[in-house]
């Protein structure tokens, strides 16, 4: 609400000046004193009108802030009608009191009923216009905010679909597997079917679970074993995964596959280096522990897994974290459960 233009200092300072001048001109027209414009435009009456405009607008603004904090009725029309009636009533009361005091102590005689009605009518219109400005601008602000939120949601959905597509297709693993498959077809045709089975199982699991939010860790580990077999059939890969988990819990689909592949991608390619990954269990999390042989220009860190962290943050207050201890890197992953 504070973003609405009626609350900006620039508007609050200049608006009463313009409205005060308009009130002064209207009073001159109503009293047939337009010729005074040529004689004394910057007279005492002009300053009185500006001060009254400032008081009325600030009063209207204060009432708007008060009404925003009060409990609302179900009908928005009744809320607006009640707000207009109360604001006009208070505005008339304040203007009447100020005009009586001005005529009595400054001008030197009592104000006539005609003068009071004239001032009250003009400043009531100003109060009404001020309320309508607020309501219309707030409505436009609400509509624009909803459109921006809708556009942001569409953008977020597109980004999520894109990231999900990247995780699902995984072009690096796919093309590397195709290259290895071409070589395998020329060297050992009998092992080709087994290699295709591993590859198809992994992608079938990834694509079939793309609409699922969570899966069992046992199901994830079964497909992780398929990824292990697939990597071991690629050139210069030597991977061993040791699972020590005893309990069953939930994980984000494909998260373990993504992390293990990330470990493999950031490790020096050599058939003499075995990537031995141990999966250990703790109370509220489990960990992937392996000895590091990082490439010179890349390494596994928290920024590499920020997309999975973003998904995990929906289900857990803890993030996936990495730490380096005695030449071993440990990836901590929170356990996910569904509260009944």
From TrEMBL:
The chain crosses the membrane at residues 12-30, 45-67, 79-102, 122-141. GO terms for molecular function: kinase activity. Pfam families: His_kinase. The keyword Ubl conjugation does not apply. Keywords: Kinase, Membrane, Transferase, Transmembrane, Transmembrane helix. Residues 161-225 form the Signal transduction histidine kinase internal region domain. It comes from the Bacteria. InterPro entries: Sig_transdc_His_kin_internal. This is Histidine kinase.
